[in-house]
Recover the amino acids of this structure.
């Protein structure tokens, strides 16, 4: 069952409020409804259309057993982006995009492996047995630093199947890496952004917390539907194998 998008809810969440007209990007013209004072108003019918394309793609990605990488490092959005990703067991980057997360996977994998190893040794008490308190504290600081940088992607194996971004200006580097690797990008695009190269354009206010949260709710629903489909397909496969 496809996720149902409520245009009234988008309106109430302020998804339609764009930036000042002086800051607009001309390539956003097809997604702008009108002007109100010195600000642009986003055409919410275009937002609905964008979501109705993006959400099935997200569901299909997860149904195929691939991950959706949530990216949102802007201060006001990072907490809700992290919570949304964690709620559906998907990888995320919400603190800072470390260059090469996708395009330099070898180095990143080494750091993730180090994080997992140190965490395991810390949790088991191995480090405490082998080192003094000051050394253990330094190991903890290293774990904290690695978690800050790579904690959200430590369970990401290989490339994500799709990237979801809440602000393509704030996270331009993330978008660039995804594009270089041919990873589809679904993203909120505000009136001051250039939507070129975004596979699934969701015209929306990328500053309003209520609006971002609402769209994240739709995205997590789509992920959940994909996970359910994947689980059902796995059950059928196991049943078929038993019968053979």
């Amino acid at each position: 069952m496809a996720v149902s998008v409520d245009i009234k809810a988008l309106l109430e969440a302020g998804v339609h409020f764009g930036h000042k007209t002086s800051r607009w990007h001309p390539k956003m013209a097809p997604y702008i409804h009108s002007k109100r004072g010195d600000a642009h108003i986003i055409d919410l019918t275009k937002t609905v259309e964008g979501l109705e394309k993006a959400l099935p793609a997200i569901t299909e990605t997860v149904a195929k057993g691939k991950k959706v990488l949530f990216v949102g490092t802007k201060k006001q959005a990072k907490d809700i982006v992290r919570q949304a990703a964690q709620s559906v067991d998907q990888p995320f980057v919400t603190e800072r995009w470390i260059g090469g997360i996708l395009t330099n996977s070898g180095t990143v994998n080494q750091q993730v492996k180090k994080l997992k190893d140190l965490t395991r040794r810390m949790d088991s008490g191995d480090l405490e047995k082998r080192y003094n308190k000051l050394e253990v504290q330094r190991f903890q600081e290293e774990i904290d630093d690695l978690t800050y940088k790579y904690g959200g992607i430590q369970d990401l194996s290989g490339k994500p199947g799709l990237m979801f971004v809440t602000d393509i200006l704030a996270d331009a580097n993330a978008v660039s890496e995804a594009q270089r690797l041919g990873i589809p990008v679904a993203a909120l695009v505000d009136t001051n952004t250039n939507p070129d190269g975004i596979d699934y354009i969701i015209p929306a206010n990328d500053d309003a917390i209520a609006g971002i949260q609402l769209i994240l709710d739709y995205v997590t629903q789509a992920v959940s539907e994909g996970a359910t489909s994947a689980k059902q397909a796995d059950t059928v496969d196991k049943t078929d194998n038993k019968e053979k």
Summary: The mean pLDDT is 94. Residues 133 and 153 are 29 Å apart (CA to CA).
